[in-house]
Amino acid sequence: LSPDEDGICSGRYFSESGLVGLLEQAAELFSTGGLYETVNEVYKIVIPILEAHRDFRKLTLTHSKLQKAFDSIINKGQKRMFGTYFRVGFYGSKFGDLDEQEFVYKEPAITKLPEISHRLEGFYGQCFGEDAVEVIKDSAPVDKRKLDPNKAYIQITFVEPYFDEYEMKDRVTYFEKNFNLCRFMYTTPFTMDGRPRGELSEQYKRNTILTTMHAFPYIKTRINVIQKEEFILTPIEVAIEDMQKKTQELTAATNQEPPDAKMLQMVLQGSVGATVNQGPLEVAQVFLAEIPADPKLYRHHNKLRLCFKEFIMR
Question: What's the pLDDT tens digit per position in 187-240?
């Protein structure tokens, strides 16, 4: 606040009761938005003020609202929908300042890629003319030299929140995994000869991690990407990742409460069916048939063997 401006400090919100009013409004809105955990954080500021005023009537009301919020967390837990995220890149001089800018968009929870794609295509089609806008369908890096200079290109990729392993220790609940997010990841499969998919032994993967300027949820539903990191996984590392994922799925399916036979059936079929192409059996035949000649691969080879040990145990 700048105190020298007239009327700023004498406004009706610039008082304790004004502050409490605004915070209560915020708590109500968080509650409506299904962010019940934050309701508690807001009331932590309100309660000491009400206690200092010995305002027991309002304290009663506040605690009953808190109880409601905690009940909602218990009852709605995983059923809440927090949002789906997409990376959107703009290419072409028609976009002006936006050219070569990347954003992460937050969309309502069950938004599919074609929906956001259709919406953005329609919106920019109205701006530049329908023939001038083109959506790039893959997530491979864009080569500007191959683009038509008279067109506006939009590249849209589904991204998922990304956390380092140490972060996962603090992000235990479903809410914590969906709140205060500023890093996102998407993967692009590729082979050395330019095709996206190939045999197991030649299947590489590029993991791209984006960092946004602010954390979601935010006032705006799209935020600039300020940093981009890329990691290339070799075929054996891709296989390790796949095996770990399969083992996690199996663990989840076998530990489900109450047990879900259909889910287990599906996971098992995907894991051990002989017809499953590029399934665990093929992974083992390709990567574990013989000890690799290159000593650099020993570590990965051992890791993959340990993945299989865990997998067979599950």
Answer: 999 888 878 888 888 889 999 999 999 999 999 999 999 999 999 999 999 999
Q: Give the torsion through C-alpha atoms of 70, 71, 77, 79, to 10 deg.
A: -130
pLDDT digits (tens, 9 = 90+) for 159-195: 999 999 899 899 988 899 999 999 999 999 988 887 8
Rounded to whole angstroms, the Cα distance separating 218 from 260 reads 37
Q: Can you state the percent helix, strand and coil of the chain, rounding each to 5?
A: 50, 20, 30
The bridge status of strand 133-136 relative to strand 152-161 is parallel
Q: How far apart are CA 237 and CA 69, in angstroms?
A: 43
- Element holding 116 (H helix, E strand): helix 113-128
The dihedral over CA atoms of 47, 48, 54, 59, expressed in degrees to the nearest 10, equals 10
Give, as one character, the DSSP assignment of residue 132: G
Smallest CA-to-CA distance from 103 within 220, 230, 231, 188 is with: 220
Domains, in order of start, for the chain:
16-76 (1.25.40.410), 84-233 (no CATH), 237-313 (1.20.58.740)
Whether pTM > 0.85 for this model: the answer is no
> Residue 5: what pLDDT?
67
CA angle, 139 as apex, 136 and 144 as ends, to 5°? 60
Cβ proximity of 144 and 91 under 8 Å: yes
Residue burial 226-265, b: 16+ Cβ < 10 Å; e: rest: eeeeeeebebbbbbbebbeebbebbeebeeeeeeeeeebe
